Amino acid sequence: MAAHFGWNLRQLDVKNAFLHGVLQEEVYMSQPPGFIDPQYSDYVCKLHKSLYGLKQAPRAWNDKFTSFLPSLGFTSTYADSSLFVKQIDSFVVVLLLYVDDIIITGNAPTLISDVISALTKEFDIKDLGPLHFFLGIQIISQTDGLVLSQAKYVKDLLTKTAMLDSKPCSTPCLPYNRLVLDDGKPYNNPALYRSVVGALQYLTFTRPDIAFAVHQVCQFMQRPMESHFSVVKRILRYLKGTLNLGIHYVRGGLEVNSDTIRAFSDADWAGDPNDRRSTTRFVVFLGSNPISWSSKKQQTVSRSSTEAEYRALATTAAELDWIKQLLTFLHLAIPSSPVLFCDNMSAIALTSNPVFHQRTKHIEVDIHFVRERVAKKHLQVQFVSSSSPRVYLLHSFKLIVAISVLVSPPELEGGC
Fold first, then answer.
1. Residue 193 near residue 226 (C-beta atoms within 8 A)
2. How many Å apart are CA 286 and CA 1, to the nearest integer?
3. In the predicted model, is pLDDT for residue 416 greater than 80?
4. If I label 164, which of 29, 104, 177, 265 is the partner at 20 to 30 A Cα–Cα?
């Protein structure tokens, strides 16, 4: 929204955030060394406020902050408990909280300054100015929008794994290559494997092109093999060659398409050789900007490609429902029902007509809720060819990224 409307993004930091929390439970602490009362050395301290190290500290801080925001006119939503919105007439201020880091934006600079002043009086807050770096994500402001990149994060990861001088490769994984559970010898450093794969998971926030490859290696955290770590190293080599890629959010991107929310859904039937389960993949666009994507294995085995695609449609429809709730809370009007694209005609038929009953009566009831959404005209399901140019290697490498998503920021060197 900030990219589309050209809003300024401000970043705030709360100093010693956990010390602001007020405890609701009775918590006692031994007298700290150097401050023991000689007359009552066997006494303990009763805490009224939280301290760092307490299990209650994060919750106490969150309760303290979120209970103060309504006094400033902010409201919250069940769709995202960290998001708060203040609206006065046509003016909107949006505040996002992540532990002690705050992002604030909106179309009313005066209101934003008033909110920052009120927060500063109540808490020890430092105004970091315009948003440039947040949770490892670099935000670059341009005249035509925003670019999100994790180039520094990738470089630190390559340095940690001694892959900074490795030879780059052109793809994050080999086509049609699926990992097998017991393939070769066990890897001698499982802790390193879990650490690197966990770091790669966080990287998918701005790099959807590695989502499927990371999804594969995540399945072997418990007992990784040498062949699995070889795939991890291939992902790192791919990142070495695409170090500066990121996502470009275009200003005015909501007007690019008549259908404001569009989603692309796909599934590979029985693609996992270990348990024959299918993998659901989807990407959701708000106008021309991608806002949500996923590559995740389905919980049960599908008996046909139609069932696998139908389950993927249901998963994507649930994501679209959540996004609609979030956008409604942000006072962003959606002119039309979201459009969900699928390349399986049989699965599309199931969303509007209970055909093939004998073949689908074993499917769980909750999966059929996508049919209810279509019947109420809350969702449109349309066919898209698997060779559509809008989908980038969706079937070849199982990536879930559109051609226009990944860019190289002009301020950074390299990239493609």
1. no
2. 9
3. no
4. 177
C-alpha span between 302 and 295 (Å, rounded)? 17
Beta strands in 251-351 (DSSP E): 261-268, 279-286, 289-297, 339-342
Lowest-pLDDT range, 106-120, 223-237, 253-267, 382-396? 382-396
Q: Where are the domains of the chain?
A: 2-127, 149-245, 253-384
- Cβ-proximal residues to 298 (8 Å cutoff; 6+ apart), any chain: 267, 277, 278, 279, 280, 308, 311, 312
Condensed to tens digits (0 to 9), the pLDDT of residues 194-229 reads: 999 999 999 999 999 999 999 999 999 999 999 999
In the predicted structure, residue 320 carries a pLDDT above the cut 80: yes
Q: In what order do the strands lie in the sheet with 80-88?
A: 75-77, 80-88, 91-98, 101-106, 10-14, 125-130
Identify the pLDDT of residue 43.
94
Report how far residue 266's alpha carbon sits from residue 400's, in angstroms, rounded to the nearest whole number. Answer: 9
pLDDT of the residue at 90: 87
Q: Span 253-384: which CATH code?
A: 3.30.420.10
Nearest to 314 by CA among 327, 300, 325, 328: 300
C-alpha separations of 108 from 2, 7, 74, 89, 139 in Å: 12, 9, 14, 11, 21
Q: Which residues, at least 6 apart from 193, have a Cβ–Cβ distance to it below 8 Å?
A: 187, 220, 221, 224, 228, 229, 232
Which DSSP category does 167 fall into? P
